[in-house]
Specification:
The complex is a heterodimer of chains A (254) and B (321). With 254 residues, chain A is of the alpha/beta class. Chain A has a domain of 176 residues: P-loop containing nucleotide triphosphate hydrolases (Rossmann fold, 3-Layer(aba) Sandwich). In chain A, 39% of the residues lie in helices and 24% in strands. Chain A contains 9 helices and 10 strands. In chain A, the strands form 2 sheets. A 6-stranded mixed sheet of chain A has the order 6-7-8-3-9-10, sandwiched between helices. Chain A is globular. The termini of chain A are far apart. With 321 residues, chain B is mainly α. In chain B, 49% of the residues are buried. The two termini of chain B are 31 Å apart. In chain B, helix 1 runs antiparallel to helix 6. Classes of the chains: A alpha/beta (254), B mainly alpha (321). At the A-B interface, helix 2, helix 3 and helix 5 of A face helix 7 and helix 8 of B. Chain A: One of its GO terms (cellular component) is plasma membrane.
Chain lengths: 254, 321
């Protein structure tokens, strides 16, 4: 008997105008899994992410989180229920320092835990929140960048800052859209190591999209291959790698 | 206590003290203008709370000023037995209620420029309703608003003449400080986050529209408070106060002084008051000079006067060091 899935999508469809981007996508992610969704450009990975996180509504199908249906809920509600998410191009608050970025996230978690009214007018962040900010920043190697404006941070720092902000909400499922996009091979290896470490220490379930095969096979406990909006393979990394269909459309030429 | 807060209180205290000195050195005409400037400061700060603080552009802020002024005037004329400070609270809340009703509809449907146009349309509607309502004096407005009394039991203080001026300066100083505290609170930080990246903020679990609605209501409360304090000062409230041209005033002050600094709009309001006074005898020229000045500032010094001063200060310090 396996655990109930953390995230489940059934017969998920999404069209933009006349173009159908997702065709009856079925996805089931078990607790503790690190699922990587791969597929060529235009396969629908980002659209799948947007539908699952609630950034855009899906047209058909059912999405549930830990057994509760979330299909019609907006993104912020899904975040409150335990989904964290980062974007392909890191979204941070550019005019704030890295520490202020983190403070916004930690205060948001605190607000959700306590209810809004108590914290409407308090001034400096409470000492415990400051400690929480510092802890997360050192855990994600951001301490050196703390007091610099986020817009001038190095690419990798921006990515880690965004991940740290998502983790501040204490999610059960973290969705990472191309976490190593634009990184050098050395930085990639570091990023993979860090994500794996965070997954283990925070007990996270991960859902990622990724292009780089070393990252994919470095992190995935299970792979899903998306091609032209349909799932063509789903299973253990070694099995998927051996799947002739997958080799043809994606891994292709080796 | 927080160091920034202490500095701000010192600054606001100095500013308030400077205003309090005006009756000692100037005639009653100047004192009257200074009272209006103090009120305009809070009006402009309340507008900038939305613009710089939450990324919401309001072209209709006169409706809140009018809500506060008419509520105060109506109570003062029809129910003078209600204590002044209670009336003040009710008048300020009237702005909050108006902001909630409007914001509830508009924030659901629109953002950016569309939102701004909706504020303009809604405030035009408020203006028309006022000019058609008998109880609000239609186009003539409400006249003969008395300067109030405050106190408890037999201990009464009549806020007449310069005493009301003192009350204006004290209440507006406190209101400005309250706005500063709001801007620098966790809520203010979250609104700033929404302004900088709305999608990111919603993916931190924030219901963006609800927070923006809160900002809109807080801004409405403070603009209405400014209007409420203004009514007994000018002793007349006319529909002009709800006119769209009144909505341009806080925008002019804020752009002149600089929107990116909290006190920018306050400086803009003071400079505008001085300019107004300096050109009071040149009919027609006054509008032109303020228009030209604003054009020069916006084109040549996008950060506003305060932004310019701070930049000059920094450059000097660097040159010294």
């Amino acid at each position: 008997m396996t655990d109930a899935p953390i995230l489940e999508a059934k017969a998920l469809c999404k069209s933009y105008g006349l173009v159908q981007v997702l065709h009856d996508v079925e996805l089931s992610i078990a607790p503790g899994e690190s699922r990587v969704v791969i597929g060529p450009n235009g396969a629908g990975k980002t659209t799948l992410f947007k539908c699952l996180s609630g950034e855009v509504p899906s047209d058909k199908g059912v999405i549930s989180l830990e057994g509760r249906e979330i299909t019609g809920l907006r993104g912020w509600r899904r975040v409150q229920m335990g989904i964290g998410r980062t974007f392909q191009v890191a979204r941070i608050f550019p005019e704030m320092t890295a520490r202020e970025n983190m403070t916004v996230a930690v205060e948001m978690r605190d607000r959700l835990a306590r209810g809004t009214a108590r914290r409407l007018f308090s001034l400096a962040p409470a000492a415990e929140l400051r400690a929480e900010v510092d802890e997360l920043m050192s855990e994600l190697d951001l301490a050196a960048a703390a007091d610099r404006p986020a817009r001038i941070l190095a690419h990798g720092d921006k990515k880690r800052l965004e991940l740290a902000m998502s983790l501040a909400l204490r999610p059960t499922l973290v969705m990472l859209d191309e976490p190593t996009a634009g990184m050098s091979p050395a930085d990639r290896a570091d990023a993979v190591a860090m994500i794996a470490r965070l997954r283990d220490t925070h007990g996270l379930t991960l859902l990622l999209t990724e292009h780089d095969m070393e990252v994919v096979f470095g992190l995935a406990t299970r792979l899903t291959v998306l091609h032209q909006g349909r799932i063509i393979a789903d299973g253990a990394p070694a099995d998927v790698r051996a799947d002739p269909n997958v080799r043809e459309v994606y891994l292709g030429h080796d | 206590m927080n160091r920034d807060l202490a500095k701000t209180m010192a600054l606001a205290g100095l500013g308030g003290a400077a205003f309090l000195c005006v009756p000692l050195v100037a005639n009653s005409g100047v004192v009257f203008l200074a009272g209006l400037v103090a009120i305009n400061i809070v009006f402009a700060l309340s507008w900038n709370l939305l613009f710089a603080g939450a990324g919401l552009l309001s072209f209709g802020h006169s409706m809140f000023l009018a809500a506060g002024a008419y509520t105060m005037a109506k109570f003062s004329l029809s129910a003078p037995e209600v204590p002044f400070l209670l009336t003040l609270v009710l008048a300020a809340l009237s702005g909050g209620v108006l902001a909630w009703v409007f914001g509830f509809v508009a924030l659901r449907r629109a953002s950016g420029t569309y939102f701004a146009i909706l504020t303009l349309a809604f405030s035009a509607l408020v203006h028309i309703v006022i000019t058609k309502t008998d109880a609000l004096g239609r186009a003539d407005g409400l006249v003969g608003i008395r300067r109030p009394e405050i106190g408890v039991g037999s201990l009464r203080l009549s806020l007449d003449g310069d005493m009301y001026y003192v009350f204006i300066v004290l209440s507006m100083t406190l209101a400005a400080l309250a706005l500063w505290c709001f801007t620098h609170s966790p809520t203010g930080r979250l609104l700033q986050a929404i302004k900088q990246d709305r999608l990111r903020t919603s993916f931190l679990g924030a219901n963006v529209r609800r927070w923006q609605l809160l900002a809109f209501c807080v801004s409405g409360v403070f603009a209405a408070l400014a209007g409420a304090v203004m009514a007994p000062w000018s002793q007349i409230v006319s529909p002009e106060i709800a006119h769209w041209s009144m909505s341009t005033m806080p925008i002019l002050y804020a752009l002149l002084g600089g929107t990116s600094r909290f006190w920018g709009p306050a400086l803009g309001a003071i400079l505008f008051g001085m300019l107004d006074y300096g050109t009071r005898n040149m009919l027609g020229l006054a509008d032109m000079t303020s228009g030209i000045l604003l054009l020069v500032v916006v084109l040549a010094v996008p950060g506003g006067i305060l932004g310019l001063l701070l930049r000059v200060g920094r450059t000097r310090e660097e040159a010294k060091g």
